[in-house]
């Protein structure tokens, strides 16, 4: 049974660790779709797929590498984060209940290993969530790593206090989503934040153009840009190109040009016809 995982790691300024990741992934029995670090976010996103056993062993080897290097006490970046392995989704790539059950079992094995082997509290989310954290997780993320250090936690695996260096991990099985960024040619963060806020408001109002679109605005100081960062959680209902076009039009109203777009992670082959505004490398396409 094939499964995709898209682990997000809290490092983006460590070329030696990125090199170790790339070396490890080059020899693993998985298909590697994405391994990219971002300096401003101070975050690395990896994406790879394969059979359950290969994905599990590869992920745990990356944990061995990352957990010996990352120290959240020194971590600074624009992206919200709560741990060294910040979030780790698993997405079954085959239909049916059996694929979901195998993915759920995989998530729980990895969570138990991270919680027991490394002493990192693990919170299950999305389809793995057990009815305990639907209200807790937004508050958990809102405070970031710094707000966790003195809190009593109720994780699904691991200790009741955040690891002093590695924080906590949010992990579980979820449906497929598309993550993408639209970079704006301005260092005025207010423009990106306002555009992201308008998208969230349209989504909340049920506007069909923005169904399932999560949006945040970030500064990209190293490049003199800002960014509207989006997750499209209902890709079967909401096409990408009209969203990018809307952002471009809205930015132009503020006198700002779009500097570029970026697909983060993977996209399905069936989504490409509605994603012509994104630059997509062949290895990013799930077939």
TrEMBL record:
Xref: InterPro entries: Formiminotransferase_C, Formiminotransferase_C_sf, Formiminotransferase_N, Formiminotransferase_N_sf, FormiminoTrfase_cat_dom_sf, FTCD
Listed SMART domains: FTCD (SM01221), FTCD_N (SM01222)
Domain Formiminotransferase N-terminal subdomain: from-to ranges: 1-175
Pfam families reported in the protein's UniProt record: FTCD, FTCD_N
Species: Fimbriimonas ginsengisoli Gsoil 348
This protein's name: glutamate formimidoyltransferase
A GO term, aspect molecular function: folic acid binding
EC number of this enzyme: 2.1.2.5
Keywords: Transferase
Domain Formiminotransferase C-terminal subdomain, chain residue ranges per copy: 176-287
